[in-house]
Amino acid sequence: MPNHKGPQACSLAVRLTELSLGEGGVLDRIELSPEEAKRLMRLGLSPGRRLSLLQAGDKCLIATAGARLALDSALAAKIYVVPQQEFV
Amino acid sequence: MTTLSILADSHTSSHVVGMSGDMKPCVILAGQPNAGKTSLFNRLTGLRGHTANFPGTTVEVRSGNLKIGKTEINVLDLPGLYGLDGGSLDQEAARAALRGEAPGIPKPSLLVIVLDATRLPHQLPLAGELREQGIPTIVAVNMIDEALRKRVDIDFTRLSRELGARVVPISARKGTGLDVLLRTLEEEVLGFPVQIETPARLSSCATCGSCPITARCRWADEVAQDVSPLNAFARRGRSDRLDRMLTSPSVGLPIFLIIMAALFFSVFSLAAKPMEWIESGISLLTSVVHGLFPAGLFSSFLTDGVLAGFGGVVVFLPQICILFFGIRLLEDSGYLARAVVVMDSIMRKFGLPGQAFVPMLAAHACAVPAIMSTRLIENPRDRLRAILVLPLLTCSARLPVYLMVAVLLFGNDPIAGSLVFVGGYALGALAAIGASLVLQRSLVPGVPAPLALELPPYRLPSLRDAAQVALDRGWIFLRQAGTIILLISVVLWALSTFPQLPSESASFHDVQVYEAHESQAVGNEDQRALEYSAAGRIGRFIEPVFAPLGFDWRISVGVLSSFAAREVVVSALAVMAGVGNDVSEDDPGLIQSLRSMRRADGSILFDFPTALSLLVFFVLAMQCLPTQAITYRETRQIRWPLFQLGYMSALAYGASFLTYQIASYLVR
Q1: Is residue B668 assigned to a domain?
Q2: What is the pLDDT at residue B75?
Q3: How many domains does chain A have?
Q4: Considering the entire predicted model, what is its pTM?
Q5: Is residue B91 less than 8 Å (CB to CB) from chain A?
Q6: In chain B, which residue's Cα lies nearest the Cα of A34?
Q7: Considering only CB atoms, which chain B residues are within 8 Å of A2?
Q8: Which CATH number does the domain housing residue B43 bear?
Q9: How many CB pairs under 8 A join A and B?
Q10: How many domains does chain B have?
Q11: Which tens digits make up the pLDDT trace of A17-67?
Q12: Neighbours of B358 (CB within 10 A)
């Protein structure tokens, strides 16, 4: 079973949906069942990866590792990120 | 993870990979969806590849031959993957093929990992996982032209060192770098493979104590940073603005509707001519048979059994090919993934995920390819729900019935006639939505899996690949539906031919019969022969069952004979009306004869309530054996096609009953 909480659970982390548009952050942990978390991780949403929020709403658009992902807001709200100002 | 590119890796059952006996060297193409594997496969094998099944599974793979010098190499194109560790059938099959454990497939001599150069960091984790399989590997870094345009600069020597494999930059679309790839492939498979040591950094991922996916992603990010320090991968400004527009309900939904309307318009308008050609081709063949053979059983078997059955299938081929050509173009352009995002919010309300809109779209041409394309729905329950409701949507085979009823009810009034069509489409769609909601609360419970989807880059779609998909789909449809419909139409021909009238003049395509239909005499040879046949007897026997729907024994025969293929009802009714079965659904002679048909009490048979009830019945009833066969093949359980048949028949009966009773009451 994957340790989807990642090595350093961080208290500064906020929900992905709480980022403002265009803001970036480092993925801290995914608080979903192991199967659901694994499904997202296979898409590249792995702890330690940088991502940024391109569009919020019922469906969120996310940029990570050069790819673009569309996520249901229910999933995005379970992804915790540590905001990073200098993220491009 | 869901991949829309399942359409590219299309489907079939009868071919099985590698069962030919000869064990050619085998090269496997693997990569993420939309990395350009299919384009590369088409480049390598020409358009001679075919879709095949992994032995014993429904997982499909494209298989083709590549000739290098005098040696033939078998090339397999695996379905698009995001990882190998999942439990999905695709992933299991991919693992088995890579390890040489799939029966009939030799252990691969070489693995070609296809990467999209413009999304390297996102693509590398899978490459790492594939490298861990310990198979000799070449890495084809695809879309190199696009990467250059986007100023993504990649150090291929460094990448080769990091992956422990030879790296060849290519553009499968443009053909750039293919000569180098072929040479490399030849050296690796037939000559002297170049040994590159697997770097420690890569091999540590598999053994790393924590999560292997996280480890691979970290490795991928480091490698991407090293081989392309400027990290230009993230720049997609214009594309991001387009994404925001296309996925928003306010702008994206109207655009979706316009694109779908355009797709449908093109499917129906572009297919009209080829369908006419096919129909006249079949009529020509029919008259050739009539000319060659004397009127009688054999000629009747060839024309009414074989040719009619064959024509009934082939006529839908243009629509299916054009539809899948269009869907593939939309998929290739990247739009389809955005459409899934827009539709997900709406479809979820009906218990289906956004991906289900592609099959639902396809089902408006034919349920058979639609059910096959439900494979892009990853959650098995969501997929089952979609499979069960898809046959309710108005497929092309219902259109002849709609047209017949429209002309029957409203003559040539185009506005009233089109209401019949709109009503048919709407009733089918509403029934599908309703059935899905009911299933969600009963037999197939659960909310659809929440959307998580990669949005691939926008690209100019490849006509060549789309043509390949269209041909592939058409061929599969012919094999799947064709064989069954042909068989059934021969059986139905036998049922409606035997036992024969004891008279010696009971030949079917007697010239007099054709001439007699204008006069509507007491019933010509055809009618009496049909009444005398097994089908006629069965129709008489079950007449009481259909009487509450307003159907007499003749319509009952029509309903029964269209059990396996609904469009058969038109020709069956034509025979009942004494017009002979070789007429079109809006043929004035047929309509006139149908209108003049009387019940036993002398009242008009096709009055308003009966015609409407017939329409409702044909909108909702299953009546398609190929669909049932494909449902069985995709669910692997006999109870699901049986359930489909049961619930749709009950629904059709109930709705027709209500329609007939209410309409009769109102008319009276």
Answers
A1: no
A2: 93
A3: 1
A4: 0.84
A5: no
A6: B211
A7: 211-214
A8: 3.40.50.300
A9: 121
A10: 1
A11: 999 988 889 999 999 999 899 989 999 999 999 999 999 999 999 999 889
A12: 25
Distances (CA, A) of A38 to B4, B83, B162, B637: 19, 10, 25, 29
State the Cα–Cα distance between residues B644 and B628, nearest whole angstrom: 8
The mean pLDDT of B411-421, rounded to a whole number, is: 87
Which among B114, B109, B82 is positioned nearest to B97, based on CA atoms? B109
Provide the token pair at B127. Answer: 């490459």
First-to-last C-alpha distance (Å) of chain B = 58
Contact B214 A54 (CB under 8 A): no
Smallest Cα distance from A17 to chain B, Å: 15
Domain that holds residue A24: 18-84
Q: Which of A39, A58, A64 sits opposite B1 (nearest CB)?
A: A39
Contact B217 A54 (CB under 8 A): no
Q: Tokens in use for B29? A: 């193409």
Structure tokens at A41: 């991780």
In a domain, residue B176? The reply is yes
Point out the residue among A4, A68, A74 whose CB comes nearest to the CB of B236: A68
Annotate B454-493 with DSSP letters as a single string.
EEPPP-PPPHHHHHHHHHHHHHHHIIIIIHHHHHHHHHHH
* Chain segment B640-649, per-residue pLDDT in tens: 999 999 999 9
Under an 8 Å CB criterion, which residues of A touch B?
2-4, 6-7, 38-44, 46-49, 54-55, 57-59, 61, 63-72, 74-75, 88
Q: Which residues of B are less than 8 Å from A48 in CB distance?
A: 214, 217-218, 221
Chain B residue numbers touching A41 (CB-CB < 8 A)? 211, 213-214, 217
Question: In chain A, which residues have their Cβ closer than 8 Å to the Cβ of B2?
Answer: none
Answer yes or no: are the C-beta atoms of B154 and B228 closer than 8 Å. Answer: yes
The residue behind tokens 């173009």 is B329
Q: Is A50 a member of any domain?
A: yes
Task: Identify whether A38 is part of a domain.
Answer: yes
Residue B350 in any domain: the answer is: no
Instruction: List the CATH number of the domain containing A26.
Output: 2.30.30.90
